[in-house]
UniProtKB/TrEMBL annotation:
Cofactor binding description: Binds 1 potassium ion per subunit.
Protein's name according to its UniProt entry: Bifunctional NAD(P)H-hydrate repair enzyme
Encoding gene, per UniProt annotation: nnrE
Keyword Metal-binding in record: yes
GO molecular function: ADP-dependent NAD(P)H-hydrate dehydratase activity; ATP binding; metal ion binding; NAD(P)HX epimerase activity
The enzyme's E.C. designation: 4.2.1.136, 5.1.99.6
Example of a GO biological process term: metabolite repair
YjeF N-terminal domain segment(s): 9-216
Provenance organism: Gracilibacillus kekensis
Entry keyword Nuclease: no
């Protein structure tokens, strides 16, 4: 499933009309009929519905929705918030079809008028403004949106809550706070940005017949669905052995933080790695071995000095490396020596990100297999941007950073955004607030390590790893084995087996 900006969606619509031969009137008919069908399935037919329409395609969708809902038996009234001359093109055509069927169309030009009308309704369908919004919302529409937000009724938005920008990096002036949004054809970028996602409420996607070919040269972002994961997840061959399932090494853990690499190693093994070695200080080994008897160990004299030739030769035997968990932030040359000397996929997390920053601007051409996994605070540290700016524009910030430094980014959050060195992006939106605990990032690093060793594509590996990490937490809550309060990182590891059963 593609994720698009407003500009990309316009181009996709143009392609469907000009090259796909699908008339704009038909696309509008498809959109409105599909939204109406969803409303029919979800809401009581005895509830009175008000549909508020503006100009443009969004308003045109509203006229179509009204026709179909009346056919389904709903009591529907349309409120037009703009002058008649502003209803043009395909929207005007569908307005005429509505008027051929019903006289329930009122022109409302002031917010207090709208408030008086809407009091009598249970549901309001918001088809006022579409995806082209940017900047300040002018009156009288601004006041209309305020009224819709203030009244005690269910708010259903069409494609996007009116007033909300479709793209990231833009400020929200005022927007409808929807209870439900029916997104037309493809989710917009703002669906997955923290400052804007809550405006959508619950959301579902309705397809309107745009061919897949319309997206291919336009969109560079995708939303990871369960079917995508199932189609790309590696199967174990009948003659699989330890080596064919991946040999990985996890490097880190000061004596005060042995649990970090313990969690990573257990997660890597539970995710299906064939062999996992933990490279750490001697005093950590008995503690970690007590919690992960399946791992083997490599003793490091410290986590500060450059790796010796002996250590580098040992690590060169592995398929991929994860480093940084519990490493500490004292000045260290371990990471730089690792990256300079080994041509392996390297997952860098936690304290490793702080060490990476010291040489981030050097030798970027050598980093095509480097994967960083920051949360928003760590991304702010790496990019020298405030957290608020990253949250507002996570797609663009990640893209520019990944291209500049020639690396992969897994920007962790409710909507985890994965970006490749060429700017291609995927989103995994599994997971819940139960993951907001220490150790869950260490678990994700272990899972990603295994996925990288087992997938031919690093992007697919990171997307699938993020999915199963979040889905493990979701299943544990959905199956009532845990709550968002008591869920621990160790529980997520144990929940992985349930995820794998759903993928088989």
């Amino acid at each position: 499933m593609y994720i698009v900006t407003a500009e990309e969606m316009y181009e996709i619509d143009r392609y469907a009309i000009e090259k796909g031969g699908i008339a704009g009137k038909l696309l509008m008919e498809n959109a409105g009929s599909q939204v109406a069908h969803q409303i029919k399935k979800a809401y009581d037919i005895n509830q009175r519905i008000a549909i508020v329409v503006g100009s443009g395609n969004n308003g045109g969708d509203g006229f179509v929705i009204a026709r179909y809902l009346v056919d389904y038996g709903f009591d529907v009234t349309l409120f037009q918030l703009v002058a008649d001359e502003k209803i043009k093109g395909d929207a005007a055509y569908h307005k005429e079809l509505w008027l051929n069927q019903s006289d329930k169309l009122e022109l409302v030009t002031e917010s207090n008028q709208l408030k008086d009308r809407l009091i009598a309704y249970h549901l309001v369908v918001d088809a006022i403004l579409g995806i082209g919004v940017s900047g300040e919302i002018r009156e009288p529409i601004r006041g209309m949106i305020e009224v819709i937000n203030q009244l005690d009724l269910t708010r259903i938005s069409v494609d996007i809550p009116s007033g909300l920008p479709a793209n990231d990096g833009e400020d929200v002036d005022i927007a409808v706070k929807a209870d439900q949004t029916y997104i037309i054809e493809a989710p917009k970028v703002s669906t997955f940005c923290e400052p804007t996602s809550n405006y959508y409420g619950n959301w579902d996607i309705v397809k309107i017949g745009i061919p897949t070919s319309a997206y291919l040269d336009v969109a560079s972002r995708r939303w990871r669905t369960t079917s995508d994961v199932q189609a790309s997840f590696p199967n174990r061959g009948t003659y699989a052995h330890k080596g064919s399932n991946g040999r990985g090494v996890i490097i880190g853990a000061q004596p005060t933080m042995p649990g970090s690499v313990l969690l990573s190693s257990r997660a890597a093994l539970r995710s299906g790695a064939g062999l996992i070695t933990v490279a750490t200080l001697k005093e950590n080994i008995s503690i970690i071995a007590n919690g992960c008897v399946e791992a083997t160990y490599h003793v490091l004299p410290n986590l500060i000095d450059r790796l010796s030739d002996k250590d580098l030769k040992a690590f060169d035997q592995f398929d991929a490396i994860a480093v940084g968990m519990g490493m500490g932030r004292a000045k260290s040359e371990l990471l730089s020596s690792l990256i300079e000397n080994l041509d392996k996929p390297v997952v860098i997390d936690a304290d490793g990100l702080y060490h990476l920053k010291t040489f981030l601007d050097q030798k970027a051409e050598k980093r095509a297999n480097l994967i960083i996994t920051p949360h928003y605070g760590e991304m702010a540290m790496l990019s020298n941007l405030p957290v608020s700016e990253i949250k507002k524009a996570p797609f663009e910030v990640s893209k520019q950073f990944a291209i500049k430094h020639n690396l992969y980014i897994v920007l962790k959050g409710k909507n985890t955004i994965i970006t490749t060195p060429n700017g291609t992006q995927m989103v995994s939106n599994q997971g819940n607030p139960g993951l907001a605990k220490g150790g869950t990032g260490d678990v994700l690093s272990g899972i990603l390590l295994t996925m990288i060793m087992q997938h031919p594509s690093i992007l697919e590996a990171l997307a699938n790893g993020s999915y199963i990490h979040g889905m493990a937490a979701d299943l544990l809550i959905d199956l009532k084995q845990h709550t968002e309060i008591d869920l621990l990182a160790t529980d997520v590891i144990e929940g992985l087996s349930q995820v794998f059963r759903t993928l088989s």
